């Protein structure tokens, strides 16, 4: 069995974290760099990730997270926020980075710029919000896979009040909204969930080869 498959079988949604263990700065940097390198539609990455260690902030977030212990017990809390709305500036900023990174003149990317704007600027506000949140989930999945390869436990969480998160983190002024939360750290030996068999659809149900 390939090592990555072993890693994915090893991981599970950790319910209890060992509060005495911390993810090292080196491993954290690896996780963040893997997240930065994640794929996103057009490469635009319309999201921002907050890396929360501050105990006071996490205690404030916990009541708005169904009082789940992972919020305060995990080594770090990664909060994925996505753009609620955007205009042409999202594309312009990205393409300015493309020109600088690749040494391209504006004329070389003019057609691509017009194409992206024609597709994204026509979206409704609701569809823009849905699209940006989907991009955040792509990054989340990549981060979780890399964490498993490092034997770092994770728990992706949607059980929270996004409005309260936005208020506590001051996201309203940044045109961001909380999309999904990821607790990372190391499983507690008392977490019985780690001993349960992984339940997934069989290949025959999940895949159709054409």
TrEMBL record:
GO terms for molecular function: oxidoreductase activity. The keyword Nucleus does not apply. Gene3D superfamilies: NADH Oxidase. Its cofactor is FMN. Keywords: Flavoprotein, FMN, NADP, Oxidoreductase. Belongs to the nitroreductase family. PANTHER family: NAD(P)H NITROREDUCTASE YDGI-RELATED (PTHR43673), NITROREDUCTASE (PTHR43673:SF2). This is NAD(P)H-dependent oxidoreductase. It comes from Maribacter cobaltidurans.
